[in-house]
Amino acid sequence: MNFQYWNRRMETLPRDELEDYQLEALRVMVERALRTPFYSRELQKAGITGGASIKSLDDIRRIPFTTKHELREAYPYGMLSIPKEDIVRLHASSGTTGVPTTIYLSGEDIKRWTSFVARSIYATGCDKTDVFQNMITYGLFTGGLGFHYGAEEVGMLVIPSGPGNTAKQFQFMKDFGTTVLHATPSFLLHVESKMREEGVRREELRLKRAFAGAEPYSEDTRKRIEELLAIDVFNSYGLSEMNGPGVAFECQAKNGLHIWEDGYIAEIVNPDTLEPVAEGESGELVLTILCREATPILRYRTRDLTSFYTEPCSCGRTHRRLRRITGRSDDMLIINGVNLFPSQIEEVIMAIKEVGNNYLIQVEKEGALDRLTVKTEVGPDIFMDDARPLNALKEKIRRTLQATISISPRVELHESGTLPVSEGKAKRVIDTRPKDI
Amino acid sequence: MNFQYWNRRMETLPRDELEDYQLEALRVMVERALRTPFYSRELQKAGITGGASIKSLDDIRRIPFTTKHELREAYPYGMLSIPKEDIVRLHASSGTTGVPTTIYLSGEDIKRWTSFVARSIYATGCDKTDVFQNMITYGLFTGGLGFHYGAEEVGMLVIPSGPGNTAKQFQFMKDFGTTVLHATPSFLLHVESKMREEGVRREELRLKRAFAGAEPYSEDTRKRIEELLAIDVFNSYGLSEMNGPGVAFECQAKNGLHIWEDGYIAEIVNPDTLEPVAEGESGELVLTILCREATPILRYRTRDLTSFYTEPCSCGRTHRRLRRITGRSDDMLIINGVNLFPSQIEEVIMAIKEVGNNYLIQVEKEGALDRLTVKTEVGPDIFMDDARPLNALKEKIRRTLQATISISPRVELHESGTLPVSEGKAKRVIDTRPKDI
What we know:
The structure is a homodimer. By secondary structure, chain A is an alpha/beta fold. In chain A, 30% of the residues lie in helices and 24% in strands. In chain A, helix 10 crosses helix 11. The longest helix of chain A is centred in the N-terminal third of the chain and has 19 residues, at 15-33. The first copy, chain A, starts with 7 loop residues before the first helix and ends in a 6-residue tail after the last strand. Chains A, B: Pathway: Aromatic compound metabolism; phenylacetate degradation.
């Protein structure tokens, strides 16, 4: 394969030079952090009084972790390290508690963020001849503007379509020869269902690639989208606390996400002990941003579960690769004492080809017990009026799930296009059990 | 007043130099246009074979007009003058016919557009210390991204909130000390109504200015917003065919919109004869874009009705000022033979202080006659359960309207907050009369 690099020098920097770069950048970040109300308190408690307190990269472990809770506590300006008048943009994720998590960017921060997104897009083989349809929300959410700026930097033709309105999306794809899509994986599956419904054939389109992110999804979901649309799907990882998209991205080798280590220091820790896991083992991703001056965030506990690949990538990049995020530690369901991630269910059902493109997981109390129901749509070739094959399919799903997750769920089959569709992050789990206080 | 200039030299260029600049730029635009399928045909029919065919600015009259209909006919690539791979963005307005009007921009085009928006914003007295809440749709619509890029260029803190969700808008305004808003005038009025409803006092906020555009509005609406929010409201004019915002804008003198004549050539013509009107007279605005390479559009009939101020502005800018757009020639209603613009109704009712912030105009057939109904909300101090003052108010509105527009409308009063609100361009007129074919 003919690999291409947006910034060959930085992307292929030898590990020792990359680590020297990180150490230097970390010292700068510590200096910046000490200018914020939050870190000036927290770092000094830990005996860190300046960049010089950090002698080696291992010293990062002297820095206390930062959690989402603390970001909220610091709202609105506790994490700000530059004068307010030098801020050029803010992004905010509202969350469910009402207090937003807010990130500030300087003009320079936007440029650096944009360059990481451009690098990510280019690494998948895209260039200025591509037509990029950005089917994701613009505005306070970082996904829309983040990809928009990065794709413009690459020089692709950007269609800022946002999500929704599939009829119009198809019109753009046809009329402008869209080659690359960006959306949540659930919206990509929805688009594909709608295509069949509206008789749009993939041969009429010129799609080659899609970037899928903003929600965890399984390898089988990727394969399904790739086969149905005859495209390559690239895994995108980012979170608004770390700017948004452009934190880690798959290259043309499509085998794990390169985390851009000149922009971020990545650690993987055991979420219970907070100690580093052994190389290659799974744990919680902890990130320190190196490429932002306005809002320095150190050792941020992402809650995302992943692990490093240990072998180098065939593309020649020296930046390590993360495995597909299997879920957030917050997402874990405990069902009658059994730990379960929604991604485990997705993996099973998306591998069954009679199953359609949408599903929903419901957990409720039934007497003293938890009851798991998996609702899936059926594929377009299955007719809802013939009970026999439907019952066989239900039983197949139930048995396959039980074999994998050790829980026997109730299975419901729904007609294609009838389960609710979200334009942003899909809401896949409805848990109606009373919460413990 | 202490006027400030983003690009002092260009904004105060002596008229003769400005016109020399326009002539040179027009010649370049003609060359570019000749590279498009549409204009290579149309210009050659008119005997224009190159930039050299244009000897003086008056020669612009040799160029045929372009209409929205022709833009649609040319969809998707008939107006494109650069290789497809050099396009970096497209904007599209869908309109009602299904065929979008599409505008392409190169990277250079985006930079120049951004600089005109930055110039417009700066002309109102804003600078990098301001906090700018962009309460308008992002994406294919040009208003969101256009202002976003321009405000970032000025270095303001941009909150890309988009429209909707007033509770969240208020939270941002309070928490980040928003000083400048951008929205449609109807959404600004809606925001003000919601503030009172939710008990947000303007003293808690730090608002100083608002930019209002994307729909025509009256001077009385401006005054109402200014008084209720205790801010300055600046009139913004643009249209997606001419990039979007940044075509014409009010300066600190707040008395007419400077059209940036180094970016656009403006003519005002009689919409029937298509001949130029006398200086200062009202007619249809015709625009030629000088600041875009990808999609050159010459002598575009905007349908917007306006006139030039003849006297120079106190701010010292040499770029002529347009009067507030009174409506689009397409918007004109003919009611029982009487010509009427919705803006005339707005002007009357917004001057009546007991009238609330929202209104709707309905036209229907009643037998052979047209029947005009004006629905307005009542102000917050009027109680709907006391019939006498309500009847008096109704009669006052009816009489004042009749005196101005020579039609006696039916008047309906509605409780504050009950008429439909639009987040984008307000839909103020519902005309249910059968269309003549």
